[in-house]
Amino acid sequence: MVPKGVSVHFTRMRFEGAVNVETLSRLADEAEKAAKLLAEMKPDVIAFCCTSGSFIKGVGYDKEIITKIERVANTKATTTTTAVVNALNRLKVKKLSIATPYIDEVNVACKKFFEELGFEVLDIKGLGIRDDLEIGRQTPETIYRLAKSVDKEEADCVFISCTNLNTIDIIQPLEYDLCKPVITSNQATMWECLRLVGVKEPLENLGALFKSF
C-alpha cells in the first residue's frame, strides 16, 4: 500500500467498552501517549487512525487531535477524518453516500460532521455493530454489499468509514461496479500521509484517489 522506500510503523491506543459516542470521545486521550511512543523513531508524519474517534465531537475536533500530536511528537500529524475530508475535496466530491459498521448514534454524528463542512450526505447506512473486534471480523464481501446498498445514482462517491474494516482489496472492484470513486478510511489516511511527506507516486488498485496527488 506504500511505494518502495516508505516504511510504516504502528502502536496501539487503548480502547475499552462498546463502540459508542462515550467511548469514542475518550479515545483521543490516548493519542498523546501513543504519539510519544512513535516519536522515539522520529517519523515524518503521525496519523491518528480512527475515523469516528476524530469526528465524534464535531467540526474542528480532528484539528485539536492533530495539535496535541504535533506538540508531543514534534512532527507533522493528521487524522483519518482530516484525510477523508481532504480526499473528498481533492476529488471534487459534493454529494456522497456513506457505509459504516457503526450504530445509529455514531452515524448521526458522522452525517452531521460532513454536512456541516458543506457536503451533501445522500444516505448513510451502518451495520449496527457495538463490538470493536466484531467490526474487524467483517468480510470484504459484507462491506462490498453494504457499500453497494448505500450508493445513490447522484452520489459523486461512496465513502466507507472505519479503519477497522478490511476494505483495501474491494476499492478497485467497487469503483468499476459503481462507476464512481470509492474512498475508504485506511486508503485516505495513507494517501494523506504520503502527500504530507511529499511522496506522490501513483499506486495501482487503490482507486481514483491514488491517482490524484
Automatic annotation (TrEMBL):
Pfam families membership: Amdase
Coiled-coil regions, chain positions: none
Gene3D superfamilies for this protein: 3.40.50.12500
PANTHER family per the UniProt record, alphabetical: BLR3294 PROTEIN
Name this protein carries in UniProt: Maleate cis-trans isomerase
The species this protein was found in: Thermoproteota archaeon
Lineage: Archaea, Thermoproteota
